[in-house]
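Exercise 7. Given the encoded structure of a 182-residue chain, write a plausible sequence.
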């Protein structure tokens, strides 16, 4: 189940590390890589967004819609200014306590993703995700879903491990939906 608040806070953390502003494409790639890294470490994503293959590489579908201003979100608008000239900006400074929906493990992922990829340009990240994220498949001019199982296999998990992790993710989503309705 997609957690907008976590996605918004993830974006805020990365924007903060960048000095308050990032190219939209670069931010979307960093968010994807953070979600992927979290799956590698724990078997679970941070925000639980839908992963899709697009012409410029893999992205988080609903987060991309938020970034592009296609969806109105109070959580997103609290942290991120509207996109302008291919840039998004952090709305306000914050402390660790302000990004309270992110666990310490999620913060570690974001910090490590920034350390590894923060100096790359958006085009370096497009090339990297095309070449190093084996779950991405060229969709032509369209987009295609990236199933969790394919991500786990691309991360080096066996087919059996990937199947188990995918079932655990599905169970978590089911419980999240039950809790949301409670």
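Solution.
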């Amino acid at each position: 189940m997609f957690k907008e608040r976590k996605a918004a806070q993830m974006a805020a953390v990365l924007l903060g590390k960048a000095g308050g502003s990032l190219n939209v494409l670069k931010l979307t790639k960093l968010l994807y890589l953070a979600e992927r890294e979290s799956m590698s470490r724990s078997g679970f994503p941070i925000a639980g967004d839908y992963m899709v293959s697009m012409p410029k590489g893999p992205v988080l579908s609903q987060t991309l819609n938020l970034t592009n201003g296609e969806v109105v979100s109070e959580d997103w608008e609290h942290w991120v200014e509207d996109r302008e000239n291919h840039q998004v900006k952090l709305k306000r400074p914050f402390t660790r306590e302000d990004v309270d929906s992110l666990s310490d493990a999620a913060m570690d992922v974001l910090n490590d993703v920034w350390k590894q990829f923060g100096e790359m340009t958006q085009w370096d990240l497009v090339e990297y995700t095309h070449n190093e994220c084996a779950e991405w498949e060229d969709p032509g001019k369209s987009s295609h879903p990236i199933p969790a199982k394919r991500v786990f296999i691309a991360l080096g998990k066996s087919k059996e491990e990937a199947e188990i992790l995918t079932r655990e993710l599905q169970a978590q989503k089911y419980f999240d939906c039950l809790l949301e309705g409670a």
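Remark. DSSP finds eight helices and five strands in the chain. Students should compare their own answers with the one above.
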